[in-house]
Amino acid sequence: MKKLRHFIGGRFEDSSSGETFPSISPIDNTPIADVSRGNESDVDRAVEAAATALPAWAAMDPALRRQALYRVAEGIEARLDELAEWEVRDMGKPISAARSKDIPRSAHNFRFFADAAEQAHTKAFPKPWDGVFTYELREPLGVVGAISPWNFPLMLLTWKVAPALAYGCTVVAKPAEQSPVTATLLAEICQEAGLPDGVFNLVHGFGTDEAGEALVRHPQVDGITFTGESATGQAIMAAAAPGLKKLSFELGGNSPNIVCADADLDEAVAGSLRGIFTNQGEVCLAGARLLVQRPIYDEFVARMVDGAQRYVVGNPLETATQMGPLVTREHLEKVLSYIDLAEEEGAKLMTGGYRLTEGGLEKGNYVAPTIFADADNHMRSCQDEIFGPVEMIIPFEEIDEAIAIANQTRYGLAGMVWTTNLNTAHKVAREVRAGTMWVNCFFVRDLRAPFGGYGDSGIGREGGEYSYEFFTESKAVVLKLGG
Ligand code: NAD
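A: This is the predicted complex of the input protein with nicotinamide-adenine-dinucleotide.
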């Protein structure tokens, strides 16, 4: 059993209360770690450490910060196997994905933003005819609270921590209570990489009324970057309001995946299967509403069912596994209740729809890949974020109808369209209200591009210059010209 402690001012520490909580593996529901349970006084110490470290880190030559962050990236790569295995044991994603995607991308986040910060520039506004010259200075936002979810624990934590540190902020991170291990390993890596004490701090624990909320309310925290549920975003916004803190929110989603009759069907089927079953469907971007045009509807549904039945569900530590268990017993129950709801609402269950308990899976939180056909977008099972391996397939006739269905949602994180018609591709990309639109592809990311959501899917954008915008304050310096 691993012992996970806070990382405050360069040292690993217990909670001031001495309290701990277990981290439970979804593979067999046994505890794998004993985690310090952070409270307000732990957050106070961490914020104090971050505030103390801020002036020197903020004033440092970005080239030196880049070198330090490159060492963190190298540290992540050096411990790739260890990080991948713990990520899997902690939250259930397949080891092949953790090794090939999540952990390497976490290292890449550090290199990408370290380079971006060194190359960042500002604007100038010369006005010689009026005898003034104005230029923009960018200064680090300050102490940043980074609150992250459990579905891509290290990848999403580093997506926040790397740009914050690169642009000269100091950080207090609060990882999800369901998946705390790799955040602790990251703290060890930061220590080994020689980051100055207090630049990166970590407080474990829960959200409401505990470490997460204390971080949001702390008067010395200048901004909060949060990824998680939309309802949590509302609570954080309310708690941050008295301090008028800068906020960046990446929230829930329920993305429409539109397949037109003229699509390359092989690619569309493969992309749609990945779009819903990757990471057990525990993906904010998941194409949970699959809109298929009538002429290909029956064939497409049949091919999706066939694909779902071939999906390899099993122990996520085995390399052949494509889908592991859901993160917690509670989340398993939630997903199963939505499967029941979809049936009650009249969607047609085509495959799956049950918990898997055979072949050594009985102790874990496994659900069979599930597909419903003939769904209606007004069903609650189509409107809510199920966040599991459950595809709701909805037929459509004309592309305008598909766009209208796509937009009938409170979310707006992403959307996909599969078509060989260029005009259709551009029309859908333009008219669907979502922060990312993929045409004939899925989950492809360019870190320079804006990432975030419309509506209940978020506030603000991160990535490339958008992260520069969030993690810095902009100052106008006005000079009177002589002569
Ligand atoms: P969650 O909102 O329950 O928790 C996320 C984090 O917030 C955790 O660290 C939690 O402890 C903390 N938290 C909870 N209540 C808090 C409070 N009152 N104050 C401060 N912190 C609090 O989300 P989750 O279940 O961990 O993650 C799944 C959700 O995240 C889904 O809705 C998913 O769509 C979303 N998500 C969005 C993106 C994106 O990029 N838009 C990416 C991944 C996940």
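The mean pLDDT is 98. The first helix runs from residue 40 to 59.
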